[in-house]
Design brief:
globular; binds S-adenosylmethionine; Rossmann fold
Amino acid sequence: MTSQPNQAAFDWTGRSGEVWRDNQSRLDRMLAPYGAAAIAAASPVPGERVLDVGCGSGATTLELAARVGASGSVLGLDISEPLLSRARERTPQGAPVSFVLGDASRHDLPTGAFDLLFSRFGVMFFDDPAAAFTHLRTALAPRGRLAFVCWRPFDENDWVRLPMRAVADILPPLPTPAPDAPGPFAFGDDDRVRRTLSTAGFIDIAITPFDSPQVYGEAATRDEAIGAALELALQVGPLARALADQPDVLRERAAAAVRAAFETRATDQAVTMDGAAWIVTARNGA
Ligand SMILES: C[S@@+](CC[C@H](N)C(=O)[O-])C[C@H]1O[C@@H](n2cnc3c(N)ncnc32)[C@H](O)[C@@H]1O
């Protein structure tokens, strides 16, 4: 197994939140197919009340709002003020949307107030996922629905495996996090997801693989597209975290190695890598 960067280094209220905010349009483009698949699985209908957990800069919050319409509502809940301020900025006036700052694992939520709990990659960062989902379930109406998308394991995800393999011989060995440590791959094990949701009181749990290419960098020329992909990888995600404390000389060697790796995935105007996710659906057992 490829060694993975320390997954614990997430600072959504600070640096991680800021880099996600600054790269919002590129990340939204990359993650759009996964959000669309999760929304299709959630099947929101006009009039429903939705909670978007870990909504970030609000792309899915707005998509869900378009589905539930003026008779419905969507509340975006996130722990990161930089991301929520971007979400508020981009929300059209009159949209049936509101945002609240809070830790989804404990934020005070109205009991039974939502028909659907939704998340695009926002539920893998809880210290105690079973406790967090137990808490979130109290906000769900009886028989209400849960739908989210999360990553499958690190080794199945080309977008992270490729650059991390490229730097494996350049950087000092990275600590291997516990498989259930909070982080992007915390729900890679579908048995763990099933156990967690079942412990939290959900029923009818379905976990389906979903694979999609991701446009990691896009530009007018192949070389610029590779440059854009490299710029993103150096700022956001596991490679950025692995390089954060390294000296410039290693960072430069790592960047050259990752550029060469991205060349293998480049077409005329884009660098595209594959991603592997789970689409998870369940119902409130109460
Ligand atoms: C990978 S980002 C996904 C953001 C957004 N859902 C999207 O698809 O663009 C993870 C998000 O979860 C949020 N998050 C992490 N832990 C959280 C918690 N305990 N409560 C609420 N939000 C959390 C982060 O601030 C971040 O916005």
